[in-house]
Design brief:
- By secondary structure, the protein is of the alpha+beta class.
- The chain is built from six helices and twelve strands.
- The chain has a seven-stranded mixed sheet with strand order 1-2-3-7-6-5-4, with helices on both faces.
- A hairpin with a 3-residue loop joins strand 4 and strand 5.
- The longest helix is centred in the C-terminal third of the chain and has 18 residues.
- The protein binds biotin (BTN).
- The site of biotin has 20 residues, from helix 2, strand 3, strand 6 and strand 7.
């Protein structure tokens, strides 16, 4: 069944963002679409959801598989009045609040793989892609993109992704209502409207609590170079501190991908 807007809005009740939710059968990318709308003046709280994406995007130019009827592909618009460097923790803040949303609807508490993946059952079940647009005076808008694998079976992932990707249904053993979870994700993201800047330290503390990367041996890949170290901490802006043998070094999310020594985690 296609994603049902009425069920999402019913679950949102009188939430102020309910009237700003738009649901489509298929778009190229909800992030791309919302960025275009934001440039045309769409208000804070505008949310785009699609039943499928033909060109879903992830971090570092990767694609995000977005088959119909299976997942949540959602983008939400914030217009924080600040400078871009004050939003370094945005992706982490989104991950922190989404863990609560997933737990509330499914009973499963996901972990966070630094920096933007939610994991459950040993697999990636969700990814976050945040994108900023700047004006002369600072941040014009932030688009928060969230993709969640809800109801796929293992064999429905392409073979080359099966060791990495999974779904909430695989991890929890039962089907997930995409509409109920989408509404809870919207609620969770909307809390950042008030707390993103004021509650940064608390949000980062929540992030660290759920982060499964901490304490692990990791491979840090930047361009052609791969280094092995131990992930020892995450600072209050979301940077990973990795000890490569000479004490902690700061690793910024920008161009870097991190994976475990023995596989994705
Ligand atoms: C990642 O895994 O690196 C992030 C994936 C983010 C995917 C979501 S799906 C909704 C939104 N639209 C996109 O094109 N990407 C994000």
């Amino acid at each position: 069944m296609r994603l049902q807007k009425t069920a999402i809005c019913k679950a949102l009740g009188d939430h102020p963002w309910s009237s700003l939710v738009q649901v489509y059968d298929e778009v190229d990318s909800t992030n791309t679409m919302l960025k275009a709308m934001a440039s045309e003046g769409a208000p804070e709280g505008t949310v785009i959801l699609a039943d499928s994406q033909s060109a879903g995007r992830g971090r570092m130019g990767r694609s995000f598989l977005s088959p119909e009827g299976q997942g949540i592909y959602l983008s939400a618009l914030l217009r924080p009045k600040c400078q871009p460097q004050e939003l370094m923790h945005l992706t982490c803040a989104v991950a922190a609040v989404l863990c609560g949303a997933v737990e509330k609807i499914t009973g499963l508490r996901p972990g966070i793989k630094w920096i933007n993946d939610l994991v459950a059952g040993g697999h990636k079940v969700a990814g976050i892609l945040t994108e900023l647009s700047l004006s002369a005076s600072g941040v014009d808008y932030a688009v928060i993109g969230v993709g969640i694998n809800c109801n796929q079976k293992p064999e429905e992932f392409p073979e080359e992704l099966r060791s990495i990707a999974g779904s909430l249904a695989m991890a929890g053993g039962k089907q997930v209502s995409r509409e109920a979870l989408a509404a809870e994700c919207i609620r969770a993201i909307s809390t950042l409207q008030g707390t993103l800047m004021t509650d940064r330290l608390a949000l980062m503390e929540r992030y660290r609590r759920d982060c499964v990367t901490l304490g692990k041996r990791v491979l840090v890949q930047k361009g052609e170079e791969t280094r092995e170290g131990t992930a020892v901490n995450i600072d209050d802006w979301g940077a990973l501190l990795v000890d490569f043998g000479n004490g902690p070094e700061t690793v910024l999310a920008g161009e870097v991908s991190v994976r475990g020594m023995y596989g994705y985690l």
